[in-house]
Specification:
The protein is mainly alpha-helical. 75% of the residues lie in helices and 6% in strands. The chain contains 7 helices and 6 strands, in the order αααβββααβββαα.
Length: 225
């Protein structure tokens, strides 16, 4: 993968995706300080998701298009993981003051799509510069730190939180940190494979990622709760 040109990976897109990641963190921070409730989660989620599609289609960026397809499918299937966390192990709690689908807020699949796109894009950058193995390790560590930060801010924002019946680091359970690390570990491999095959393969990989998210949650809770 080193030094191979990847269609859609350019300086403008890199700036846009990294800047949007900063916007998401900043919005989450302000929402936590203001205790703004789930409406602010819906605004940033739908707004960011729409922006990514606008960017992908306007600039005909094949990489962002693939990552959106990949993330959207995985995000929809993540509803099963949320159900596991909410109703099976009774760990995750949503405010309930929003439209729900199964055990999750309506915006949740799109929130996962946004975060998976951001992390996957970083995975593409790392893979190009460092190779697949190093990229996977770095993203595993980064994902284990980045998403739990989002989880930590979500509690004070009133978006969701976890019961205090498991080992916690701030507002994030240790098993969630392990889970997010396992999820991030898979992204460079899946995305690098998708880059060199038809879009149909991206759909299949999105399904596989959704299954892996559920498996990661089960494995992490089993070994680290």
């Amino acid at each position: 993968m080193k030094n191979i040109d990847i269609p859609g990976l350019d300086r403008r897109t890199t700036i846009v995706i990294l800047a949007s990641s900063g916007v998401l963190i900043g919005w989450s921070l302000v929402s936590s300080l203001l205790k703004s409730g789930p409406i602010s989660a819906s605004i940033i989620t739908y707004g960011l998701y729409a922006f990514y599609w606008f960017y992908a289609l306007k600039f005909k960026n094949p990489l962002i298009q693939r990552l959106l397809v990949f993330g959207t499918i995985a995000g929809i299937l993540e509803l099963a993981t949320d159900h596991y966390l909410v109703d099976t192990i009774d760990s995750l709690v949503y405010s309930g003051n929003e439209l729900m689908v199964w055990s999750s807020p309506m915006y949740m699949p799109f929130a996962w799509s946004n975060v998976l796109l951001q992390l996957s894009f970083v995975g593409v950058l790392l893979t190009k510069k460092k190779g697949l193995l190093v990229a996977s390790i770095i993203l595993c560590i980064a994902g284990g730190m980045y998403i739990p930060l989002y989880e930590h801010l979500a509690k004070d924002a009133g978006w969701w939180w976890y019961h205090q019946n498991v080992t916690m680091i701030f507002n994030a359970p240790v098993y969630i940190i392990v889970c997010e690390a396992l999820i991030s570990l898979s992204l460079p491999l899946f995305v690098s494979y998708a880059e060199h095959h038809k879009l149909q393969r991206t759909v299949y990989l999105g399904i596989l990622e959704g299954v892996w998210i559920l498996a990661s949650a089960y494995i992490a809770f089993t070994i680290a709760h």
